[in-house]
Amino acid sequence: MHRRQLLATGLAAAALPGLNACATGPSADPRFPVGADQEARVYTADELVAAGSRELGIAAEAMGGAIERIFADQGDSPTAYIAGEEAAGAAGIGLRYGRGALHMKDLSASQEVFWQGVSIGWDVGGNASRVFTLVYGLYHPDMIYRRYPGVEGSAYLVGGLGVNYQRADGIILAPVRTGVGLRLGANVGTMAYSRQRNILPI
User: What pLDDT digit, counting tens, does each position of 55-106 carry?
Assistant: First the structure.
């Protein structure tokens, strides 16, 4: 009987580390780099100007003006940014497809993201753009994958630069676009961000 009690005690002690590991949950997993649901390190204006001007291939002064405007509208605490490129076109109904990399300070490597959207409005033309998107309220990278409604008014010329906002469930995206093409108009639509490219934008 005494031997059985010792064996039971030993088995329980051996099981405790595994139980404790399970209790820590996703924060111990490297795929979940953010330690708390509502915490993530933020990017400064200087960091974003440097990264944005490099990714978009524009002067730091131009990027600084866009960042200053976004900070004035949305605050100075973006927790992530997406750098990528996209193509879009419209004739009343518009389509947009893009691909990029999500960067967070708590991520050991960037995370690939795709986006596709549809819009309707007074909107004619097409453009190919580099995109640098500031992200607010993102505390875990997988939170980015959802649909974002947005309103966009844009005037694209050769080498043009534009900013608009998309919001969903407390997350705000502020894409800064520069590219080649001609597009003039204003539209209302949605943008879906996904792990893989989707042909259908809805």
Answer: 998 989 889 988 998 999 999 999 999 999 998 877 778 788 999 999 999 8
How far is Cα 202 from Cα 191, in angstroms, rounded to an integer?
Answer: 8
Q: Where are the strands (E) in the chain, listed by range?
A: 80-103, 111-136, 147-156, 160-163, 165-168, 171-194
Residue type, 12: A
Dist CA 111 CA 103 (whole Å): 7
Encoded tokens for 18: 């595994």
Tokens of 185: 């108009």
Full-model pTM? 0.74
Q: Is 5 left (phi over 0), alpha (psi -120 to 50) or beta?
A: alpha
